[in-house]
Structures are given as C-alpha cells and as structure tokens.
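Is this the right way to post structure tokens for a design question? Let me know if I should format differently. Anyway, here goes:
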C-alpha cells in the first residue's frame, strides 16, 4: 500500500499549521507584513492620507468586478476617500496571508480581505499584492482582487461534494463518503483505503468556512498519525486546494491540487505540485473516483472505479 499512501496525500487531507513557516520568514516578508498591518490600521481609522502613503506613485488597484484598474497613487487616494467619507463605518480585516519573496525588493502577498459595515454586511475577496521596496520603504505597487462572496453563502457550491465515491487500483479500493454536518455549516468526508488482504487506512476531513482566516478551509487527520490543513479556492472547473501537511513519519509537506466534478458526478483530482521535506516533487496524473448510486452503496459487490 506504499504507493497508495502517497495517493492518499493527493486526494485527502492531512496538515500543518503555518507556525514553522512563519518562523522561517525572511526579513523582507516580515517588513511587508508590518506594512500590511499598518495599512489596515490606517483604513480602519479612516486616515486617508496614511492609506495613500502605502501605495507607490505608479500603483494599480484592480477592484473585484471593475472593468479597469485604478491607476496611480492620487487616483487610489480619491477612491479610498470616497469610500471612507460616507457615514458608513467600514472595517477591513485581512486573513490567510501568504508571502513569497521574489527578490530583495519585491514580495508577493496573497490572502483574503473582509470588508464589513452595518448596512452592507460582510463581503470577501481573494487578493494578490505586489509589494516593492523603494528607497528603503515598502509600497503596494499592484493589487488584484477576486470576489468570493458574503458570509451568507460561504459554503455555496459544496452540495456536489455530498455522496459516495469509489476507485480501484493496485489491488486496493478507496471509498470516499461525504455528508453535511452542523446545520450544513460543514461537510465531513471520510476516506477508507483497503487492500486485498483487508488492511486499511482511514482519514477524516472537515470542510467549512473559517471566519478567522476569511476563507474556505479543510482540516484532516488519518489513522497513521498524519494531519493536514488546506485552503480551498474556486476556479473555473472546481476547486484549487493549497495544503500544508505533516506526514506520519514527521516529514512536512505541501501540495497544490485540483478537485472537480464531471457531468456524471464523478470526482476528478490531480496533484499539481508537491514538496516533501523541502524537496520539490512532480505532480501526478488525474485520478477519477466514480460516484456510487443508492444500489451500489447498499451492495458493495457492485463497485465501480477507474484506475489512476
């Protein structure tokens, strides 16, 4: 079952909090994180001038849903002033931040932003920021946002993940069962991998909205001691999942994988990129798990599957 154990990491969920990663953050990313916190503080104080000073002179701001970006510090300042000059008290919060240093003077940041007010409620957007260092100071040079909805529909679209699926290969069977939990706030997925000798490995995953990090997230644990935490983002075909994991032997791992559902309700997953113990590994071929009908679920002998 050795090959399947790695396959479980691809389809399942086994994870790592970001503590170790944060401890290894470079000095530039720490400086950028401080600037981001400074910007959020200025926005929530309604300090328009301080907000504007966080943008470069030639910066661009691509607002979710807007046809064209706002270009230039002065234009961005005017847009912020227009928003904050109303009687509405907007509050900005940032969650699920990830930083990547590209060079000594460029750092990329991605995360989720939550903009809330009493009248409009809370709206969420995924964002990507290019921070540049100019004369020793970090500035927001480019920001691109993608809307991800509001608090009322944070688990919208997950209905298709409820059901039972199976896949057979290498003399083993993988079964995935998913059900709604806690007033449809979460989906619980159970995984059972059983070989021809009756030996099995199991895992459990919970998927739901994380109000602290402002994103859809999953938490997973397996019977061999591995665990995972992952972020789920919508793409054109389904979900793009970014996972951090600790494997049973104590090795840390990260992965980006896709998950989609075809017209017949079958699950299709593929590992796009993996790192095991800091070593970059190639992705995998797509794997399809066949949705089971009511009769197939009640009669195990009628299993279907597609070899990965």
């Amino acid at each position: 079952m050795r090959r399947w154990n790695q396959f479980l990491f691809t389809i399942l969920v086994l994870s790592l909090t970001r503590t170790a990663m944060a401890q290894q953050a470079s000095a530039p990313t720490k400086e950028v994180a401080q600037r981001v916190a400074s910007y959020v503080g200025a926005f929530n104080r309604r300090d328009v001038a301080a907000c504007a000073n966080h943008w470069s002179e030639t910066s661009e701001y691509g607002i979710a849903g807007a046809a064209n970006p706002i270009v230039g510090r002065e234009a961005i300042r005017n847009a912020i002033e227009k928003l904050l000059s109303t009687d509405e008290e907007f509050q900005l919060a940032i969650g699920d931040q990830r930083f990547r240093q590209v060079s000594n003077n460029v750092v990329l940041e991605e995360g989720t932003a939550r903009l809330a007010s009493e009248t409009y409620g809370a709206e969420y957007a995924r964002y990507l920021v290019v921070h540049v260092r100019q004369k020793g100071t970090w500035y927001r040079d480019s920001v691109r946002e993608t809307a991800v909805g509001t608090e009322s529909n944070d688990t919208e679209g997950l209905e298709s993940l409820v059901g039972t699926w199976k896949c057979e290969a290498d003399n083993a069977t993988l079964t995935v069962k998913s059900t709604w939990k806690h007033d449809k706030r979460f989906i619980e997925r159970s995984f059972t991998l059983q070989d021809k000798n009756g030996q099995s490995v199991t895992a459990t995953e919970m998927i739901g909205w994380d109000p602290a990090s402002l994103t859809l997230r999953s938490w997973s644990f397996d019977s061999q001691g591995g665990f995972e935490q992952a972020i789920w983002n919508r793409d054109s075909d389904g979900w793009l999942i970014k996972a951090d994991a600790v494997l049973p032997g104590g090795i840390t791992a990260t992965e980006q994988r896709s998950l989609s559902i075809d017209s017949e309700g079958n699950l299709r997953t593929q590992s796009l990129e993996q790192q095991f113990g800091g070593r970059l590994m190639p992705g995998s071929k797509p794997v399809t798990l066949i949705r089971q009908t009511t009769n197939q679920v009640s009669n195990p002998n009628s299993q279907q599957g597609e070899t990965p």
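Format looks fine. Someone answered above. Worth noting: Helices lie at 2-11, 19-23, 27-44, 48-52, 73-84, 294-298. The chain has two domains: 27-148, 159-292.
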